[in-house]
Write a structure and sequence with these properties.
This protein is mostly helical. It has a single domain, classed as Hypothetical protein af1432 (Orthogonal Bundle), CATH 1.10.3210.10. Helices cover 70% and strands 0% of the residues. Helix 2 crosses helix 8, helix 3 packs across helix 8 and helix 6 runs antiparallel to helix 7. The longest helix is centred in the last third of the chain and has 26 residues. It is globular and about 60 Å long. Bound molecules: fe (ii) ion (FE2) (2 copies). The site of one fe (ii) ion has 5 residues, from helix 2.
């Protein structure tokens, strides 16, 4: 087995709570399954899944100070509602504590809580795997999203981002502007696709 995977698992098992470690393994395996389906390098997907929550070994109220210490630039919104910051801090830790240099892995970890406009394939795989992994049991749409993720990754991404926004809005919870921007980007992409499809139909 790949030495790095063994090393990372041992380290994460020591640092994370049991339930967080189980979630980590499940996300990692789900990333690999999606990578198989969509033709992405399996080991990169596995590593992204393994390390995505590595910053969760620290308490949430320490994220801002830790980000500032490591000179990770933060927006005012991120400082005000730091829950999503474990993604940014996690990407820094993946690079500086686990030695990951691959930009696609680091980027996917950095945006796994909020998404971002123009997500790449690994960004999508990790974001979706984090939502559908086997230990998740709260969201009503999980069975549908688990199926959809393997049928149409872009539609699954759109439905999960939309559902997350609706969930946060209904409960009056803080919405990070990047989540909103991600949603608006996906809506505009879908509109462009409809226009392109219509133009294609007319040309037939
Ligand atoms: Fe996370
Ligand atoms: Fe996670």
């Amino acid at each position: 087995m790949n030495d790095f995977i063994v090393y990372a698992r041992k380290k994460l098992k020591k640092k994370l709570s049991e339930s967080r470690y189980e979630h980590t393994l499940s996300v990692s395996y789900t990333c690999v399954c999606l990578a198989m389906r969509y033709g992405y390098p399996l080991e990169k997907a596995e590593i992204a899944g393994l390390l995505h929550d590595c910053a969760k070994c620290y308490p949430e109220d320490s994220y801002v100070a830790r980000c500032e210490k490591h000179k990770i630039p933060l927006t005012a919104d991120e400082k005000a509602a730091p829950a999503v910051l474990h993604a940014r801090l996690g990407a820094w830790m993946a690079q500086h504590r686990y030695g990951i240099q691959d930009e696609e892995i680091l980027n996917a970890i950095a945006c796994h809580t909020t998404g971002k406009p123009g997500m790449g394939l690994l960004d999508k795989i990790l974001y979706i795997a984090d939502y559908i992994e086997i230990r998740r049991d709260k969201a009503e749409n999980l069975p549908a999203m688990r199926r959809l993720a393997f049928e149409d990754i872009d539609e699954a991404l759109f439905q999960i981002v939309k559902g997350t926004l609706t969930y946060l809005q209904k409960r009056g919870m803080h919405i990070d502007p990047t989540t909103q921007e991600t949603y608006e980007y996906l809506v505009s992409q879908r509109k462009q696709q409809v226009i392109a499809d219509t133009a294609g139909d007319n040309g037939r």
